[in-house]
Amino acid sequence: MSKIRVAVLGYGHLGKWHCQKAAAHSDVAEFVAIVEKFPAAQAAAKAAHPSVRIVSDLSEVIDQIDAAVIVTPTSTHFELVSFLLNHNKHVFCEKPLCSNDAEALKLRDLAASKEVVIQVGHSERFHQAWESLRASLQALPTPFTVKINRVAPFKGRATDVDVVQDLAIHDLDLLLYLFKQRPKTITARGFKIRTSKWDHASITLSLEEDCEATVTVGRNATKEVRDLEVVSKAGTLTVDLFANKILTASAGTFEDGSFVREETYPKRDHLLIEHEHFYRSIRERRPGVVTHRDGFNAVHLVDCALRSLDRMAPVAVKPLE
Ligand SMILES: NC(=O)c1ccc[n+]([C@@H]2O[C@H](COP(=O)([O-])OP(=O)(O)OC[C@H]3O[C@@H](n4cnc5c(N)ncnc54)[C@H](O)[C@@H]3O)[C@@H](O)[C@H]2O)c1
Predict the structure, then answer these.
(1) 0.70 exceeded by the pTM?
(2) Quick one: CATH architecture of 125-266+302-316?
(3) What is the rounded CA–CA span in Å between residue 219 and residue 305?
(4) What contacts 111, CB < 8 A, 6 or more positions away?
(5) CATH class of the domain comprising 4-123+270-289
(6) Ligand 1 centre from 264 Cα, in Å?
(7) pLDDT for 220-264, tens place per residue?
(8) Cβ 188 under 6 angstroms from ligand 1
(9) Which end of the chain is less crowded, N or C, counting CB atoms within 10 A of the terminal residue's CB?
């Protein structure tokens, strides 16, 4: 099979890293183009990847590629994904797949008529911890509660979107991926502190079988926290996604007499793993590791959370894909 000709769209904060991963897969992919609108970023792209064509519009290279990685601002995703699908190209789009439910509905119809790989960059699924924990999380006795925190001091980035689209989308996708429970309603409260968009949000999801999850996201916190805690009558499990630690307090005692067990797990290069999956899915003609349906579901939960924040009232979640 000939190499997959790939372009990366956007050479910003994350685009640089995607370009590195595309270049690292030269055994299966030919990194042919970087599409970037901003002249200074184009110059930086040229310096880092001298043999790759740098253009300012996707239409200039659309006939020379088989696949594209979208790492542009969220507001551009719908138009770029649609353009690529209309040209029958494989798509790896950073999260969120699109901006809202209305765009997701249009993309769903378009995707249904295409036989290409669509992969979404929900990179938080690739922590090694989930490989050992996912089966036990799905078998937890109910009811249980889940709390996920993803907060950090202000960094001035991604202020074109609110924290629900930028941060909570990771955790809303994780909830669907890790637990068998489906959300019924979403109730969210938030604050606009530094920008005209939500800078802090606390999103509570009522799940099946009396389970409840709360996702707290913020970009004006006093310290950086990224963790997940699950409590049930079987005990408490905390995964510190920053320190790569798993802490367990079971209902009994561990062999050494302690009540809390601490384990560590190795950090992995999530982007590299996502690129590996993308090229393998194209070669083996199978669905992306995180599919467009996963992308639509996450966008729907974001949409519900934003409506709840605006109305200050619970919002019903529609049946997911
Ligand atoms: N998976 C993750 O953990 C993660 C982390 C950070 C960002 N992201 C996502 O990646 C995307 C990009 O984020 P970022 O922080 O790199 O943004 P950024 O603003 O740093 O970079 C975006 C780049 O895209 C360029 N651009 C804009 N419109 C374009 C177009 N139509 N064609 C080509 N280039 C265009 C801009 O000039 C800019 O250089 C966002 O969707 C964000 O949600 C995901």
Answers:
(1) yes
(2) 2-Layer Sandwich (3.30)
(3) 17
(4) 85, 118, 292
(5) alpha beta
(6) 32
(7) 999 999 999 999 999 999 999 999 999 999 989 999 999 999 999
(8) no
(9) N
